[in-house]
Amino acid sequence: MFIKIWNFLRGYVIIEVKGFSVERFVNQAIASGLIFWDLERDGGKFYAKVTRRDFFRAVSLCEKTGTHITALRFYGLPVLMRWAGTRPVLLGGAVAFVVGMVVITSFIWRIDIEGTARIDAADILAFLEANDTQIGTSRRAIHYRTVENMLMLEFEDIAWTSVSVSGTRLLVRITETICTEQLPAVDYEFQDIVATRDGVIVYMVTEAGEPKFRPGDVVHAGDVVVSGRLTLGSAEDGNLSYRYVAALSEVWARVYYTMEFEIPLTYYEKSFTGVYNRVYSITIGSRTFTLPFVIGPNQDFIYYETTTRHHRAALGADYPLPLALTRQNTYELTRHLRSRSEEVASHMAIELATRRIADEMQPDAEILEKQISFEMGERALLATVFLVTIQRIDQTQELTPEEIEMEE
Predict the structure, then answer these.
(1) pLDDT in tens, 279-295
(2) Which of 11, 59, 77, 136 has the most Cβ atoms closer than 10 angstroms to its Cβ?
(3) What is the pLDDT of residues 166-202, one digit of tens each?
(4) Measured on CA atoms in the order 40, 44, 45, 48, is the torsion positive or negative?
(5) Are the C-beta atoms of 276 and 286 separated by less than 8 Å?
(6) How far apart are CA 217 and CA 195, in angstroms?
(7) How far apart are CA 275 and CA 33, in angstroms?
(8) What is the average pLDDT value for the chain, to the nearest integer?
(9) Helix (H) or strand (E) holding 94
């Protein structure tokens, strides 16, 4: 690559050598230190590339060897400069373009946030903007370590962050702290076992703690099923005392679900007419300009769908520019009133119920009973799904020092 650039800067010539002593010319040229590249042989002709300086030396060798040399074409920076010198306006425009690109690419024109799940990327962008780090900021004005420290101090859910600039793109990588909801159940020093759902206890296995319910009892979500407070002694003896432990228990219950779905018997079916209009707009920096012409009928459709496509100017992936073209297509639709039979509506209700059950049921839940009933109304089919499942409903709940003091 470096050699190609160097040859372009010096300038080179594509030559054609012909005659009866081409081999003699090549041998003497190599012996004289002439450098050829991209050599080709076509019958009695010889093609190659040579620097401008060596070209004139090759001309004198041709006279000695009885061959004829022809310069087919000159390439390189000297040729380009000579060509541009006869076109000052074009040269000035090219220089202005290069200077403009250098100036434009010295600013940030896109900010990407990666790694956010719980944190809203819009909040990070708003914070960066409030601290003078936004689109249009000079690349040299960004102090990476300072921005990273400010983000860590502002957002408690950020465990690690990295700020870097690649071209005209500012990249903020975020690693969030572990969500407490994603952590496995923690055995606290003192804890209760509480119910997560309403149900009827089927069986329970208690390793530590004092059960407050037994199989066959009805529990509600939030009830303490197994207490971490053990009662010692007897109130009759006046020797009543308490000891606190981390309750451990596995509780399975029969849980009941009722779901209702309404499937309309009439609906609108849409279809495209093939008529559409298209509007273009240009965004420069933060300002958007709608072009004053419309492709297609310049009218508002009664029923329509709109699609929008953005094309952002960029000099490669890392050099987005503050220029974008937006194309908005509006397609005309027609709507036709259709009806569905009770059989089709019932099949749709069953599909909806199946998806809903899969979304709501726990992986370890066992469905004991499933009933689906239908009731035909004037305009819709009402489907009612009744489920009976067996599933775990136990969850740990910490006993805080304050709660212990109040109970004592």
Answers:
(1) 999 998 888 999 888 88
(2) 11
(3) 888 999 998 888 665 554 454 567 888 999 989 999 9
(4) positive
(5) no
(6) 12
(7) 71
(8) 82
(9) helix 88-104
CB–CB of 204/252 below 8 Å?
yes
- What is d(CA 226, CA 249) in angstroms, rounded to the nearest whole number? 7
pLDDT at 223 exceeding the cut of 60:
yes
Phi–psi pair at 186, nearest 5 degrees: -100, 130
Locate CATH 3.30.70.260 in the chain.
Answer: 2-81
Burial class for 68, CB neighbours closer than 10 Å (0-12, 13-18, 19+): middle
Full DSSP string of 111-160: EEEES-SSS-HHHHHHHHHHTT-STT-BGGG--HHHHHHHHHHH-TTEEE
Tell me which residue of 156, 110, 115 sits closest to 134, measured CA to CA.
Answer: 110
pLDDT tens readout for residues 362-385: 777 888 888 888 888 888 888 888
Buried/exposed code over 381-405 (b: 16+ C-beta within 10 A; e: otherwise): bebebebbbbbbbbbbeebeeebee
pLDDT tens digit sequence for 210-222? 899 989 899 999 9
The H or E element that residue 268 is part of is strand 266-284
Residue 139 CA to residue 343 CA, distance in Å, equals 65
**Helix pair 88-104, 77-85: axis angle to 10 deg:** 120
* 336 φ/ψ angles, rounded to the nearest 5 degrees: -125, 130
Pairing status of strand 110-114 against strand 169-176: parallel
Residue 142 CB neighbour total at 10 angstroms: 17
Residue count (the chain): 408
Nearest alpha-carbon partner for 23 in 67, 84, 73: 67
Q: Give CA–CA dist 330/381, Å, rounded.
A: 35
Query: What's the CATH architecture for 88-183?
Result: Roll (3.10)
Please provide the DSSP assignment of 230-242 as one string.
Answer: EEES-TTTT--EE
pTM value > 0.90: no
Q: Which two tokens stand for residue 242?
A: 């308490």
Helices (H), 229-387: 342-360
In this structure, what DSSP letter does residue 32 have? Answer: T
CATH class label, 2-81: alpha beta
> Which residues, 6 or more positions from 274, have their beta carbon under 8 angstroms from its beta carbon?
332
CA–CA dist 365, 179 (Å, integer): 25
- Where does CATH 3.10.20.310 sit in the chain? 88-183
Distance CA 392, CA 29 (A): 91
Q: Which helix (H) or strand (E) holds 56?
A: helix 52-65
